[in-house]
Amino acid sequence: SRLCKDYIESPQASHKKGGVLGLAFVAIALEGDVRKVLPGIVGPTLELFRDEDARVRYYACEALVNISKVAAEAILQHLNKIFDGVCRIYVDGDPEVRHGAQILDKTMSDLVKQWRHWFSPSDFVPVLAQHAKNPAIRQCVLAWVMLLDDLDVDVAPYLSQFLDGLFGMLSDPLRETRHNANACLTAVLKKVVAGSHDQALAVISDTAGIVVKICFSSDSCQRLSALCWLHQFVLTKAAIVGAGRQCVLTKADLDDKWVEILPDL
Q1: Rounded to whole angstroms, how far apart are CA atoms 220 and 197?
Q2: 81, 111, 136, 160: most buried by Cβ count inside 10 Å?
Q3: DSSP per residue over 188-216, as a string?
Q4: What is the C-alpha separation between 83 and 72, in angstroms, rounded?
């Protein structure tokens, strides 16, 4: 559009700020019809998250908050790209930009709660997992994992993608992060155990290697938590096999690839 060409793509910071504000005003004016032009608004706004001028980044963040509120459920189609953008500026060198990122992050999570039926966990979780190992944005990632749990999203199919990152948070310098990570890991494990036998076995198969690796971590909290998970895996596997056989278990009943590594502990 002319707005993007003359202002958003301008080398002058003042033009960029004016352009992104213009995009926000367009979104507000269109109200319910904004979904028709969202790609042409969201994309250019997110590009300004990379701008070298902190004020431009802040204006872009503020504009996207307003655009998201007007677009409502339609903005969730762009959640993955927006979350990538949030993670980029969540650790920005400018405190105002970081604050703007936090506001945008909360806006998106509130919209997910409000329009949960428009939210696609299968599309979002892989993006979340990509950022789970970044220690600088642990609070942000952890908040989203806890949100998935609050929404009763079945995270079991995606657990292998972000479990390693969750365990890593147990060694975070911030006590709150360690506490929340431990609570999240406990809640997830309970859901796995309480789920169907097929799902529990699938999770064990997919994640046992990750858990065993954490058992050798240099951090004692990670090791303890991983050993608790591994212990529960053994009990769950034994209970499932025992329920199916209705007899005393033998070592052969428990043999599979992940069990073979247990004696090495």
Answers
A1: 31
A2: 111
A3: HHHHHHHS-HHHHHHHHHHHHHHHHHHTT
A4: 16
Contacts of 88 (CB under 8 A, 6+ apart): 49, 50
Three-state DSSP state, 75: helix
Angstrom distance (rounded) from CA 265 to CA 254? 17
**8 A C-beta contact, residue 62 and residue 101:** no
pLDDT tens for each residue of 207-225: 999 999 999 999 999 999 9
Q: Which long-range contacts (CB under 8 A, 24 or more apart) does 241-245 make?
A: 243/197
What lies within 8 Å, CB to CB, of 145 at 6+ separation is: 128, 132, 155, 162, 166, 184
Look up tokens 């975070």; give the residue: 172
pLDDT in tens, 8-34: 888 899 989 998 899 999 889 987 788
CA angle 259, 255, 245 (to 5 degrees): 125
pTM: 0.84
Question: DSSP characters for 95-108?
Answer: HHHHHHHHHHHHHH
Rounded CA gap, 183 and 178, in Å? 9
- From 3, 114, 115, select the one nearest 48 (Cα to Cα): 3
